[in-house]
Amino acid sequence: xxxxxxxxxxxxxxxxxxxxxxxxxxxxxxxxxxxxxxxxxxxxxxxxxxxxxxxxxxxxxxxxxxxxxxxxxxxxxxxxxxxxxxxxxxxxxxxxxxxxxxxxxxxxxxxxxxxxxxxxxxxxxxxxxxxxxxxxxxxxxxxxxxxxxx
Length: 150
Prior knowledge:
Blueprint: H1 2-15, H2 19-41, H3 49-72, H4 76-91, H5 99-113, H6 121-131, H7 138-149
Helix pairs in contact: 1-2, 2-3, 2-4, 3-4, 5-6, 5-7, 6-7
């Protein structure tokens, strides 16, 4: 589904001659191909949608860091370009959970996995990543899990 959405988005952007969107989607597709090569190395046919969503979230984090650097360096033009790429990448991600929804999801996962201490954090994170790929910031989720299991 995600792969089809990316291809359709690329076609639409090309038809409308939106070159910023075309280049951003091509970056996503290039990352997708890298993930597919990694997956074939592991004996899989192609990367899962969860892997692709995780890659896209990483792309957004990288661009947010670049925006911060560009803003500090008074390069608003480059920061705006990075923000445009974030906007394009975000179009292909599922709706992000807000803080309360994320905490509720974490509590439910802790309960269902039987986690009782910080030693079970890996099990909880693994379960969250499989259920909520692309829907939450796992850096923030990690802090919430630590707070709840402490």
